[in-house]
Amino acid sequence: MYIILFIVIIIVYFFVQNEKFTNISNNCIKYIDNTEIKVVNNKWKHDFEDRFKNHEPNSNLKLKEILKELPNNSYIIDVGSHVGDTGLYLAYILKHNYKHKNIKVIMIDPDNNFYILYYKCQKPII
């Protein structure tokens, strides 16, 4: 079991090292509540911007409201996160409004390229 985990970590490490990646570009504003997030220049930039600005605004506001009810040290798992518009939105809100709650957001998508993007951009984006 530990050998498999070690191999996966090594593979992800090499993917991250080989990923061609550019810097943060402009900011993107969510229309429903004016939340502003930094956007990374890559091939998913336009899809992320469109989804972050407009995708499921009422659901996102409801999720934002629920954050205050979650207990400390909880996890939010976004399965099928696509480009991460919902997960990063929630992580941003948690970081800026509920840091004391220590709630983690885990985003899962079957495309390993998105994992590399999240891993490399985790700190600059939120």
Task: Briefly characterize the structure.
With 126 residues, the chain is of the alpha+beta class. It has helices at residues 2-18, 45-54, 57-67, 85-97, 112-125; strands spanning 24-29, 36-40, 75-79, 104-108. The protein has one domain (21-125).
Describe the overall structure.
- There is one protein chain.
- By secondary structure, the chain is α+β, with helices and mostly antiparallel strands.
- It has one domain (21-125).
- The protein is 52% helix and 17% strand.
- The chain has five helices and four strands.
- It has helices at residues 2-18, 45-54, 57-67, 85-97, 112-125, and strands at residues 24-29, 36-40, 75-79, 104-108.
- The strands form two sheets. It has a two-stranded antiparallel ribbon with strand order 1-2.
- Helix 3 (57-67) runs parallel beside helix 4.
- The longest helix is centred in the N-terminal third of the chain and has 17 residues, at 2-18.
- The chain is globular.
- The mean pLDDT is 79.
List the topology elements.
Layout (H helix, E strand, L loop, with lengths): L1 H17 L5 E6 L6 E5 L4 H10 L2 H11 L7 E5 L5 H13 L6 E5 L3 H14 L1
Count every helix, treating DSSP H or I runs of 4 or more residues as helices: 5
Please indicate the count of domains: 1
What is the ordering of alpha helices and beta strands?
Answer: HEEHHEHEH
**Beta-strand content estimate:** 15-25%
Q: Report the strand count.
A: 4
Specify the biggest β-sheet: 2 strands, antiparallel
By secondary-structure content and strand pairing, the structural class works out as alpha+beta
Strand order of the largest sheet: 1-2
Question: What's the Cα radius of gyration?
Answer: 15 Å
**How confident overall, as mean pLDDT?**
79
User: Kindly, what is the distance between the CA atoms of the first and last residues, rounded to a whole number of angstroms?
Assistant: 33 Å
Helix coverage percent: 40-55%
Coarse morphology? globular
Low-confidence stretches: none
